[in-house]
Amino acid sequence: MPDVALTWLGHAAFRIDSPGGKRIYVDPFLTGNPKCPEAEQQPERMDILALTHGHSDHVGDTVELTKKFKPDVVAQVEVKGWLGGQGAEVGDLPGINKGGTQEIDGIRFTQTDARHSSSADDGTYLGESCGYVIELENGFKIYFAGDTCVFGDMQLIGRIYGPDVAVLPIGGHFTMDPREAGVALELLGTKRCIPCHYGTFPLLKGTPEELKEQAPSDVEILSLEPGETIAI
Fold first, then answer.
1. What pairing do the DSSP bridges indicate for beta strands 23-26 and 48-50?
2. For residue 111, what are the β-bridge partners?
3. Which residue from 35, 12, 16 is spatially nearest to 25, judged by alpha carbons?
4. For 230, how many CA atoms within 13 A lie in the half-sphere containing its CB?
5. Among candidates 105, 144, 121, which has minimal Cα distance to 25?
6. CB 162 within 8 A of CB 156
7. Around Cβ 45, how many Cβ atoms within 10 Å?
8. Which residues of 86-107 are buried (b: 16+ CB within 10 A; e: fewer)?
9. pLDDT tens digits for range 68-100
10. What is the rounded CA–CA span in Å between residue 56 and residue 65?
């Protein structure tokens, strides 16, 4: 199975280079992100852009990026409609919603539940937060939980989709902390985890070391530095 290259861009922003050569960005909070390396703030190309919810630390540079690269946009229906109103080039296909799947060039984006809010900076309602199970061309599956607390139905995400890697927030305050993330890994049954949404701002105090203490002993915690790429 060809490797999947996953790069953490700080906070909850990631870049995926798929086995088929597609470049995918998830929650592209790049400029203004204090943890995003300067060299990563101006992407070279972008084929697909996926958003978990409408908060500005996740939407980030989406409007400008869609104008520049014209990627396929995957987002919840309210978020995608709002982005179009902000001048983003999102195409004519309505956004999906929880339980729905959008397939782009052999890559499947299935939207899952997440427990969190979602709104624009001016308070505009933007639906609910979500996560994604992204199944790449070779069948490899990455679960991006998005901003969320732990919830019991993560067991269903593990049962239905069987993700190979889970990307979980651990910072606390706005999302789950390492203790809840440890329980999330028990529910999911996933044996590899990449932590995110920590250390960006002082409030986000959870650490990968704490997660290692809380996670099941058979789970590998793959902690990255911002800008670091891992082959998974």
1. parallel
2. 132
3. 16
4. 16
5. 144
6. no
7. 9
8. eebebeeeebbeeeeebebeeb
9. 999 999 999 999 999 999 999 999 999 999 999
10. 14
